[in-house]
Design a protein that fits this description.
Length: 350
């Protein structure tokens, strides 16, 4: 019986030469994982100021969006359970409505409204035990069918800025764990650019976004191997690109020889099996958010449906590692990767 919580960072292969390059790095623990900001080519004072702004924003978002500790989001969830409306800031309303759009696009496999299921499995906790949930509770939550479309919004009253949000379904419990890191990555880029910083790499527990370059070359990162220390492959991350990974190795427990991960299929209420990890490379506007959100429906689609899910989420660069450790990936992403082990079984598709 094994219990593990490992927020594993994507392996950063940042070459620092003789240690004299102007590379400033700062780490903190936010969102339940290690976050790191690397700034290249700036005076230390400016780099430090930019990194501090990012870390402050990360903590603000952590406090705003925490699903089970006191936060603006958990207060909303309490009101939903009681059938009452609750005030929400324009930012939080925008996030909820945006998450709803992604949920609809995914056909409901990305569903932040299933916080009740996540809680029932014990994953809404900093630590968790290898205990299966009550089967009747899971059945009841599936029957209740919580969806982001159950939410409704009343405009702010005159003289106020906060809308009233309510849910017609008391089983809705919003958990933005599959959304918040990507949103935070994009906010980090905005803040660094406002500080006049042109070259940086931001890493939130393996969700990574690049700004500019690392000197005369792109930023180099590694994609975490889901079963071994280190990277299964490396990648040159270009300006404005982001990588997001969903894996069964980050939050899980093992019971009677079976692994139960925190990534649940909303259609069954069960942890997804048959997939070790999914990585998405996104670019352009909101690259951080896209890399984070779209990896979830691809993971849930599994080996039989992952390629269709990539298309449904309007992505082109994706990788899935199946239960046997075989790598299935799009040809577009294959051209960008260098695998660490020549024996890795790689199965590209158009």
């Amino acid at each position: 019986m094994i219990v593990r919580f490992a927020a594993l960072l994507a392996t950063l292969l940042v070459l620092t030469g003789c240690g004299k390059e102007p590379l400033y790095q700062e780490q903190a623990y936010v969102f339940g994982t290690i976050v790191e900001v690397s700034v290249y080519g700036e005076e230390e004072a400016k780099a430090r100021q930019g990194a501090a702004a990012v870390m402050t924003e990360f903590q603000r978002l952590h406090d705003l969006l925490h699903a089970w500790q006191p936060s603006a989001l958990s207060a909303l969830n309490e009101a939903f359970a009681q059938g009452k409306p609750h005030a929400a800031t324009p930012e939080l309303v925008a996030l909820l409505q945006d998450a709803e759009q992604f949920s609809v696009r995914s056909g409901g496999t990305f569903n932040p409204a299933i916080g009740g299921l996540i809680k029932a499995w014990g994953f809404q906790s900093d630590t968790f035990q290898p205990v299966l949930p009550d089967a009747q509770r899971i059945t009841a939550l599936l029957k209740a069918n919580p969806q982001m479309t159950d939410l409704s919004y009343l405009p702010p009253a005159p003289g106020t800025t906060e809308a009233q949000v309510r849910s017609k379904n008391p089983s809705v419990m919003v958990d933005l764990g599959g959304y918040a890191k990507g949103y935070a990555l994009d906010r980090a880029v905005e803040l660094l650019q406002q500080q006049g910083i042109a070259n940086a790499l931001v890493n939130i527990g393996g969700n990574v976004i690049a700004l500019g370059t690392h000197g005369k070359r792109p930023w180099h990162i590694g994609i975490q191997h889901p079963r071994k220390p280190g990277a299964i492959a490396t990648l040159e991350l270009r300006d404005g690109e982001a990588v997001g990974t969903s894996g069964d190795y980050q939050r899980y427990f093992e019971l009677d020889g079976k692994r139960y991960c925190h990534l649940l299929d909303p259609r069954t209420g069960q942890p997804v099996r048959g997939v070790q990890a999914v990585t998405v490379l996104a670019r352009g506007e909101r690259a951080g958010l896209l890399s984070d959100v779209t990896s979830k429906p691809i993971f849930i689609a599994g080996l039989s449906g992952w390629r269709a899910a990539v298309r449904d989420m309007n992505q082109t660069d994706a990788l899935l590692i199946d239960a046997e450790g075989k790598v299935h990936l799009t040809e577009a992403l294959q051209k960008r990767l260098k695998f660490s082990d020549s024996m890795t079984v790689v199965m590209p598709v158009p």
